[in-house]
Amino acid sequence: MQLDQRLRFDSYVVGAGNRLAVAAARAVAESPGSVYNPLFIYGGTGLGKTHLLGGIGRLAEALHENLEIEYLSLEEFVDQLHAAISAGQLEAFSSRYERVGLLLIDDVQFLTGRRETQAALLKLFERMQRAGGQIVLTSDRPPSGISDVDERLISRLSGGLIVDVTVPDYETRVAILRANCEERRIVFRGGVLEELARFSFVNVRELQGALNRLVAHQAAGIEETPAPAPAPADRPTGEFESFLSEVTSVVQQHVESWQARLTEAAEYWKGEGYRTAVLERAVSLPKSPDVAGLLATFSAAVEHLRDLEKTACSVDPSLGSNSVFRDPERMAQAEDLVERALAGETPPNGPSTEFDRASYDVGSSNQVAVHAADAIVAEPGVKYNPLVLHGPSGVGKTHLANAIGNALAKGNGTPVTVACVHAQKFIDELISAIQGGTVERWRARYRSVGALIIDDVQFVAGKERTQDEFFLLFNSLVGANKQIVLTSDRAPAEIPDLEARLRSRFEGGLVVPIQSPDRTLRERLFTRFLTAAGREADDALLGVLSEPSVQSVREIIGTVNRLGAAAEASGTPLTAQLARGELGMATPFSGGTAVATAGATADPVFLNNEKIVWEWPDVTARVIEDFR
Questions:
Q1: Residue of 105, 185, 201 lying closest to 153 (CA atoms)
Q2: Displacement of CA 444 from its chain's centroid (Å)
Q3: CB-count burial class (<10 Å; 0-12, 13-18, 19+) for 365
Q4: Could you tell me which residue, 382 or 571, shows the higher pLDDT?
Q5: Residue 349 φ/ψ, nearest 5 degrees
């Protein structure tokens, strides 16, 4: 779907009901992938959510020349997903979106009950975020209000910024009406727009519809006093629906026919996901080049890139996300990449560099896991092999696992090759290898690594062939003293349909839970994230972390994002907003006195020269480790 040229920030009227959303949207457009990722905008129909998506897309396009932008509705995404599944091209579908730098999806409230789509979105979000891509979603309700949605997807959305747009107030309605009239060069007698704005409209579309009726009557020479919009049952349909777009459309600039042909071709190939800089440069030439020859050469280059990408994917499906296959001017690089892939020189994906050990805060809820992580970095493959980290979504399992991988990759003078993949990607790669008859090559790639990290390993359960291959790979790596780290949303004993031979091997290493952060850790995380955002972490704000509803690190990050965006949008100190109840959180102070809240008692840690004892809330889960 193409972005509507009329949906820009400079044509979007900002008021009290949308100021926070606009500030967040601008920040995302200016620095996609680095702030508020994902950004989730919700509000009633006709309040400007789609306009904000267009504004983000247009501004990002202007600021970031090589940024790949994709805008579509959820229904279009579902149609594409089903088509990819039917054609057996699911990996190519995912790889295509992984290349996108800014993904804008409208109307995600229709996710209800679509488990297959939810799983695809979750996987896509994880891949895009690892690649630095920005995701922006809109809905008519918040994530928690969309029924029958995977908890992991809700958690992923909560880790960004969730912001709403509400019905515009009187002043904003007047500003919208005046802006529309200025853009359309329409003049009414004094007081007409102000009178029209006094009526209660449930959304901006109704307001514009009422203005359209006034414009139509004025054009017909009929004097009309502003009146409220008809009730939904009596509202006329069709007559004025396209009035605004027709009036505001501008006459297209005249261009030479050869320029039009090149521009049209460039837009088409952009829509297909390819870089078109060579065509765009040709448009600016002082005279016509050989247009037919140029377009034929470009098409042939695209076809060759597609063949190269297909070959690369047959060796390593993850290579399909490489940007060299989308730029005809990087053909030599694409050919070199394929040659190296065929020679077996492309190892699996490594850990995400954004996760390091220094940025991982330690508390009683994760101290055993962190100690074990440090131990295996010091002596990989020796002490705890495998290390299994388990716990609910959003508590930091992926962060710690990737931090281990990054530390191992640097090594103590002897860096190792680390493969770090999500279990679903591991499964998809195996399926592609089976289809392409390259299973031996797939096995060799994984057996050649120095350490293996698999995120959400619970997904291998019930996949007989995957468990067979993983069992053989597990034995090969452990036998060679190569470190394995696994994460899961539950302990191995609780994973249904996990083969006993794998379960016993998992439990033969060290199985460590990571729990929801305790209050002390929540406060420390909150302080760090606020400080990183340039905000002061005072006692009033830290009191928010005592809320039992904040159960994961992602939720803490989402809270910080919301606080920062609110402060930037309003210019009001966060403490004052919190006290007035403007942040949608319970006020932790009453009458100037802190309200005591019951929280989990920090697990005691006893240290001596011989041992460390960690006591967990569950007395049956005491871990004692001797240091010798």
A1: 105
A2: 32
A3: buried
A4: 382
A5: -60, 145
